[in-house]
Amino acid sequence: MLNFVAGVITMGYIVAGLFFAKFWHRSRDPLFAIFAVAFWLLASNQAIVIVLNVPREEQSWAYLLRLAGFILIIVAIVYKNAAGRSRSG
User: Fold this and answer.
1) What are the distances in angstroms from CA 51 to CA 9, 18, 27?
2) Which of 6, 20, 33, 37 is deepest in the core (most CB within 10 A)?
3) Per-residue confidence at 42, pLDDT binned at 50, 70, 90?
4) Whole-model pTM?
5) Cα 80–38–13 angle (5° rounding)?
6) How far is CA 26 from CA 30, 32, 44, in A?
7) Domain limits of the chain?
């Protein structure tokens, strides 16, 4: 059952990444591209943990993929907010 749920979560991350990639393709806004990559990193993390049967995810190297995904999301939001301020100011 755990493998099934992990597969569903992985698929959800991939679909979210495709969703943001579609919006990036339409708008060419870097925020969407960064979000797409971040969600694909989260999907990779989830898949690797299940495929390699990692017993403690938070103590493995695969956790760095999740960390990188969340850092990318934070960087994208900060970049977008900083770019909005410089245009309006």
Assistant:
1) 14, 22, 35
2) 20
3) very high
4) 0.87
5) 125
6) 11, 10, 25
7) 2-88
